[in-house]
Amino acid sequence: MNADKIPDIIIGRLPVYLRALQRLAVTGVLTTSSQELGEMIGISAAQIRKDISQFGEFGKQGTGYSIPFLVERLRNILKVDRVWDVAIIGVGDIGHALARYNGFSNRGFQVSMVFDNDANKVGQKVGEFEIFSTAILLEKIKQHKIKVAILTVPASAAQEIADQLVKAGVKAILNYAPVSINVPDSVHVQYIDPVTHLQRMTYYL
Amino acid sequence: MNADKIPDIIIGRLPVYLRALQRLAVTGVLTTSSQELGEMIGISAAQIRKDISQFGEFGKQGTGYSIPFLVERLRNILKVDRVWDVAIIGVGDIGHALARYNGFSNRGFQVSMVFDNDANKVGQKVGEFEIFSTAILLEKIKQHKIKVAILTVPASAAQEIADQLVKAGVKAILNYAPVSINVPDSVHVQYIDPVTHLQRMTYYL
Predict the structure, then answer these.
(1) What is the DSSP code (8-state) at residue A120?
(2) What confidence tens digit (pLDDT) does each residue in A124-156 have?
(3) Whether A15 and B199 lie within 8 Å, measured CB to CB
(4) 3-state class of A150 per DSSP?
(5) Which residue from A166, A168, A164, A162 is spatially nearest to A191, judged by alpha carbons?
(6) What number of other Cβ atoms are within 10 A of residue B63's Cβ?
(7) With an 8 Å Cβ cutoff, is B12 touching chain A?
(8) Residue B56 has what pLDDT?
(9) A145 phi and psi, to 5 degrees?
(10) Which end of chain B is more exposed for a tag (fewer CB within 10 A), N or C?
(11) Does the CB of A179 have a partner CB in chain B at under 8 Å?
């Protein structure tokens, strides 16, 4: 196994496999097959087998996959067998929703800090977090060695905040601002923009 | 040009091109190059040229792309030169944020109906919308011929609501519930789950 050689498109499917396996696990099921998994997530069994085999031998013909074992391995591969602290920048509607979102736990992440540049919001609470000023973003994030950030600022502010996050040592940015941001190659960015997802579907309608 | 033959991965990049071009357009710029576009969005100029050339001749060597022309063509290709009514199902934090989101306008979509199954929410307002009961979802969506829905319900309710949406004639579902849903091949689904996006990045850290 050479992690560097595994295409990003395969890496992108692993969290979907993990999510489905964890849903099966909570029902108490101990084994599954690529067929069953495929039906759950709408990916072909052959594709699933091929993707998973990139990381070693996980299942035997006829007996299927051990769910606890595969969950453990996927969590390890995706590095979510630990808990990453996450900073949220921007407490508009979406930032607010994410700061209160209870879906991070058990999946490798916890919100640990929330920032906004609005003086009326700074010092207020969102969920259990005090909102910090973006003026102290660089210092705070550096100090707490936070590597993961969620950007929920307006498009016009996204690049400037991204630059600060990079300076502070952040290595992974989930960007909800509807604009592309430029970061060094060593920093990873994923985008969530509902409209691009919707447009990708209307093409087919 | 044969639309059926264009790989989905290319279609997925078109909304990103369109978004960048529209951002350039509002600044008053009239032409751009694949280089400039590529720097904005972090995709290689060669890839952009190749993708766009699938749909015809848009630029000339040396003169670049006409932004208004390319915007118009991409809007047409993605079928967002019209406005799609969107139903939101589930008025938790995320549904609430989306119902008030002002980023849909000019990009081909408008929220037109909002549903929840919570009797305490039904009849209340979110933004400008009265929250309808999911009990009348099928009837309302059918009646208004809504083809696009955003699913922001808990994972446990996602499949049941998806089934109703399909029955009501919805053809595109943007699913924020952290679970895969099964729909007929004629219905398109896109997923937004912040955790899968985060996990896709931590792999590389």
Answers:
(1) T
(2) 999 999 999 999 999 999 999 999 999 999 999
(3) yes
(4) strand
(5) A162
(6) 9
(7) yes
(8) 82
(9) 55, 40
(10) N
(11) yes
